[in-house]
From TrEMBL:
Similarity section: Belongs to the bacterial ribosomal protein bS21 family.
GO cellular component, one term: ribosome
Species in which this protein is naturally found: Dekkera bruxellensis (Brettanomyces custersii)
Pfam families named among the record's database cross-references: Ribosomal_S21
Coiled coil region boundaries: none
Signal sequence annotation: none
Molecular-function annotations in GO: structural constituent of ribosome
Origin: domain of life: Eukaryota
Protein's UniProt name: Uncharacterized protein
Keyword tags: Ribonucleoprotein, Ribosomal protein
């Protein structure tokens, strides 16, 4: 079983096919999920907080124990994602077509407008300039819709023989 995932908007700029991760039944030592699953044991920080005379005894022990006992998947879900649409995945089963799954992933990238989002988030734009760009974009969209409407009327008139 494979999974194609969109990790961040800037990586989608250079290609919509970012990475493929193999999910197997055996957990290898290099697998990130198996590394994260080792968090369920005691950590160094938990040893420090268990000592009541410790410098860090003001920290709440229950929160530390709760964070230390998270499973790898929960830990990964709690991590902040750097881009707006990060974390979207497309599942590829062994029985399905690999090219179809990649095209579904490309469609997901295009539908969420990842490339434009990446470019917009790359630079700081002053608020007035951002509002002006938004106004220009909306007016351009309306103008293009009006032009396409006029062209459809002309095509219909030509078809009818006017």
């Amino acid at each position: 079983m494979f999974r194609i995932a969109l990790r961040s908007g800037c990586e989608a700029q250079f290609g919509s096919r970012l990475f493929v991760r193999t999910v197997s039944t055996k957990a290898s030592k290099d697998d990130p999920l198996s590394i994260l699953s080792s968090i369920t044991g005691k950590t160094k920080f938990e040893h420090i907080t268990n000592d009541s005379h410790s410098l860090f005894s003001f920290l709440d022990d229950s929160k530390t124990k709760q964070k230390a006992s998270l499973r790898a998947r929960d830990f990964a879900r709690a991590m902040p994602l750097p881009a707006k649409i990060s974390g979207r995945t497309t599942l590829i089963r062994k029985s399905s077509n690999f090219n179809k799954s990649i095209s579904m992933f490309d469609r997901l990238v295009r539908a969420n407008n990842i490339r434009d989002l990446w470019y917009d988030q790359m630079f700081y734009i002053k608020p007035n300039k951002r509002r002006l760009n938004k106004r220009i974009k909306n007016k351009k969209k309306r103008f293009d819709a009006g032009i396409s409407n006029l062209l459809s009327i002309v095509k219909d008139a030509v078809r009818k023989g006017y």
